TrEMBL record:
CDD domains: thiolase. Residues 263-384 form the Thiolase C-terminal domain. PROSITE patterns: THIOLASE_2. It holds the Pfam family Thiolase_C. Residues 5-255 form the Thiolase N-terminal domain. The lineage of its organism: Bacteria, Pseudomonadati, Pseudomonadota, Alphaproteobacteria, Sphingomonadales. The keyword Transferase applies. Keywords: Acyltransferase, Transferase. Belongs to the thiolase-like superfamily. Thiolase family. This is Acetyl-CoA C-acetyltransferase.
């Protein structure tokens, strides 16, 4: 089987909801990343064989073949097709997995896996509420699902709290984790660690190129003063990810494409998988998913130089690290979604972009990335820096 390589990896800086990127149409956000990938690679845009675009809230400005609209807004020619993928928060990580499968199978040689989400212009869950407003249907959770699982709907907030309780994670511990996320992200910005991975976005106020949600003055007292999201709970807005606007993407190439186009790979895709479990607890699946992939590869977490575990809520990476006895010094070394934001469909390739650049900067070899996802699913991928 052929190998799949990542030859370029970029992301926009994260814009706060209703912040610096609020005036940018989501298709233009996606187009910015697509153009940057082909420009940095120095290839003819017409050689791209497909664009796989992750996006969670596919409605409004992110509707009607949204991935294709990102292509049409970009400098890529009309001959480049696209498809839009929804695996919830893992949408663009799944796009990368599909891209790798296409290249490894020999079906295609140059594929872009990307993700875009404007949580300002297309608010979370807005594609669900439109039917309620029209008085049509009963929503996405059929009565048969509600009866089977004994809940009227699946809630990520409830799931995050269940994970915290199950793994004995206190409010103070999660607040400290959140504070560390801001401190690591602030240090990364100040050191220029993100410079190579961020592509500027043109806005009415000029080029936007620095993550907007990082609190350089974050304190434990400030985070600890926030009210819990549910009565009596320990999950708060301070120890959860930020709603964010942004886009990200990677260019995946075959070995033949490397030779044909004179490309130098950043990383080789070593292994990947997807798993599913309890949809009520929902967000705990990265734990068994990671164990499953490591067992299949014969590798251990000790073989990993870095890992990126999405900080949808502090309880998720903390439970993952505790259950798998992971080295905290290798976890989300440049901060995570608590500080940098979680632009839903863009987060998969966003985390992969940061992981690859961090591996290169540290001279590391193996990196592991995993995402918790709505419905109780998780993607896991291991890459090898070149």
């Amino acid at each position: 089987m052929s190998a799949a390589y990542i030859v370029e990896a970029v992301r926009t800086a994260g814009g706060r909801r209703k912040g610096a990127l609020a005036g940018v149409h989501p298709a233009d956000l996606g187009a910015t990343v697509l153009d940057a990938l082909v420009t940095r690679a120095g290839i003819d845009p017409a050689t791209i064989e497909d664009v796989l675009m992750g996006c969670v809230t596919q409605g409004g400005e992110q509707a009607f073949a949204f991935g294709r609209n990102c292509v049409l807004a970009s400098g890529l020619p009309d001959s480049v097709p696209s498809v839009t993928i929804d695996r919830q928060c893992g949408s663009s990580q799944q796009a990368l997995q599909f891209a790798a499968q296409a290249v490894m199978s020999g079906t295609q040689d140059l594929v872009i896996a990307a993700g875009t989400e404007s949580m300002t212009r297309v608010p979370m869950f807005s594609n669900m509420s439109v039917y309620e407003k029209m008085g049509i249907g009963t929503g996405p959770f059929a009565p048969s699902i509600q009866e089977r699982y004994g809940v009227p709907a699946f809630s990520q907030f409830t799931g995050a709290q269940m994970v915290a309780d199950r793994h004995g994670l206190t409010r103070e511990a999660m607040d400290r984790f959140a504070l560390d996320s801001h401190r690591k992200a602030a240090a990364a910005i100040q050191s220029g660690a993100f410079d190579a991975e961020i592509v500027p976005v043109a806005t009415a106020n000029g080029a936007f190129a620095q993550d907007e949600g990082v609190r350089f003055d974050a304190s434990l007292e400030g985070i600890g003063a926030l009210d819990p999201l549910t009565e009596g709970g320990t999950i708060t807005a301070g120890n959860a990810s930020q709603m964010t606007d942004g886009a990200s993407g990677v260019l995946v190439a075959s070995e033949a494409a490397l030779k044909t186009h004179g490309l130098t790979p950043l990383a080789r895709i070593h292994a990947f998988g997807v798993s599913a479990g309890d949809p009520v607890v929902m967000l705990e699946e990265p734990l068994p998913g990671t164990r499953k992939l490591l067992a299949r590869t014969g590798l251990s977490l000790a073989d990993m130089d870095l890992y990126e575990v999405n900080e949808a809520f502090a309880s998720i990476p903390m439970a993952w690290a505790k259950a798998l006895e992971a080295d905290p010094a290798k976890l989300n070394v440049n901060g995570g979604a608590i500080a940098l934001g979680h632009p839903l469909g863009a987060s998969g390739t966003k985390l992969m972009t940061t992981l690859i650049h961090a591996l290169k900067a540290r001279g590391g070899r193996y990196g592991l990335q995993t995402m918790c996802e709505g419905g109780g699913m998780a993607n896991v991928m291991i890459v090898e820096a070149m």
